[in-house]
Amino acid sequence: MPLNFDPQQLPPVSVDHHLPAVTLGELQAATLRARFRAPPEWAPEIVLEKRFNDRVPAHASVLVPLVQRDELTVLLTQRTAHLTDHPGQISFPGGRAEPEDVNEVATALREAQEEIGLAPQYVDVLGQLPTYTTGTGFIVTPVVALVRPGFSIQADPFEVAEVFEVPLAFLMDPANHRWHAAEFAGRRREFLSMPWNGSGADGHPRHYFVWGATAAMLRNLYRFLVA
Q1: Torsion over CA: 83, 86, 89, 94 (sign)
Q2: pTM of this prediction exceeds 0.90
Q3: Which CATH number covers residue 118?
Q4: Rounded to an integer, what distance in angstroms lies between the CA atom of residue 225 and that of residue 33?
Q5: How many whole angstroms from its chain centre is CA 50?
Q6: How many domains does one find in the chain?
Q7: What whole-number distance in Å separates Cα of residue 117 and Cα of residue 21?
Q8: What pLDDT does 52 receive?
Q9: Which domain holds residue 140?
């Protein structure tokens, strides 16, 4: 993607109002546990982005942390603006697999602890979604987990500008899923966004533009839950 590309300047070409939302009754911890224990037949909707570089593909994992509030929320981060990959974007905590990681879950838990200080004892892993390959060459495994309240956040200031939560019900409602399209170097690219108006750490209103790989993986979670 061009360095000066601002996805928020692209108006949506469509919004998925016609698709059913996942109900609050279906977005309960016990229901999600049962769904991951006995998954339905389903297929992810988006698994691959067009490549933007020639980097050798690398495996990575992200944690999709579902915090057990009065209603489930998704814990997200905003990356710092100086990072090489996906600067300033909203993402799940996670990162590249390391040789000491025994599996994808271990990568996700280690990265979440290093990135935002989320201790593993608060995390109850439900399962994994299919891999998603980013345009920057990462083959990402999303690890979905429930997070018990009482955890503390200590974000790595080099990587993380902010940590915040969005209601899972908002993200699992396709009326909030917007499709955009743009052309780069003669190639058309489509991507999703899920803009959220919430409150920042200072309590003031904030606009969070969830898009790209994070929105795509959330869309795949939606497809899994409605299958």
Answers
A1: negative
A2: yes
A3: 3.90.79.10
A4: 11
A5: 18
A6: 1
A7: 32
A8: 66
A9: 23-174+209-226
